Amino acid sequence: MLNTLILQLRRFRRNAEGALTVEFVILAPLLLWLFAAIYTYFDAFRQQTVNLKAAYTISDLISRETAELNETYIDSMLEMNKLLVRSNSSLSLRVSVVRWDEDDDRYYLDWSKVRGTALDVWTDATISEVEDNLPTMPDQERVILVETRNQMEPAFNIGLPAMELDNFVFTRPRFAPLVYFEGVTISSSGHNDTVGGDVVD
């Protein structure tokens, strides 16, 4: 009786039937989680890149404007941003024109416009909060500052939290000394485009 039991146990130990199925059942959850994690991280980097490119596109478009901008123009920039990003999450946009004053050793705002709820309008009093991120400029030089904020929800729940995708992009006006906005009076001069009294092309 004991010998028969031992033989049965030895036969069971050598039997490999169903081993592949058991291994698959053990490893399948790990493999599925790994595929989900790879896709989620890839999608997060893709969304970050798309948001950054969209901000650069808006900044470049505004930098080429020679006509006065208005509220409808800013609305259209937000709609274009949504189209470029292709995201269902809420999107906020802030467009500002920032001027450097060498005598006062500080930045000033020509104008600032916001679309969405996640960002506030910059003012002369608050623009100093981001002065470390702004470029070094000659006196009375201006840059167009475009900021976007978009919330990214991970494609799968793998432990990656929802993230705010923030972009901070600035561009110098290309074809005009500055970018005007309807109803906003800009009193100071434009680019510092003179050296020794001669106009610099």
Give the distance, in angstroms, between the N- and C-terminal Cα atoms.
105 Å
How is the main sheet built?
4 strands, antiparallel
Identify low-pLDDT runs: 190-201
What is the spatial order of strands in the main beta sheet? 2-1-3-4
Mean pLDDT comes to 84
Number of helices: 3
Please trace the helix and strand order, writing H or E for each element: HHHEEEEEE
Question: What report would you give on this structure?
Answer:
This protein is an alpha+beta fold and 201 residues long. 36% of the residues lie in helices and 22% in strands. The strands form two sheets. A four-stranded antiparallel β-sheet has the order 2-1-3-4, with helices on one face. Strands 5-6 form a two-stranded antiparallel sheet. Helix 2 (19-63) packs antiparallel against helix 3 (71-85). The protein is rod-shaped and about 105 Å long.
Structure characteristics:
201 residues, alpha+beta, 4-stranded antiparallel β-sheet, two-stranded antiparallel ribbon, 22% strand, disordered C terminus
Structure at a glance:
The chain is an alpha+beta fold and 201 residues long. The protein is built from three helices and six strands. The model is unreliable at 190-201 (pLDDT under 50).
What topology does this entry show?
Elements: H1 2-14, H2 19-63, H3 71-85, E1 91-101, E2 106-115, E3 142-152, E4 163-171, E5 194-195, E6 198-199
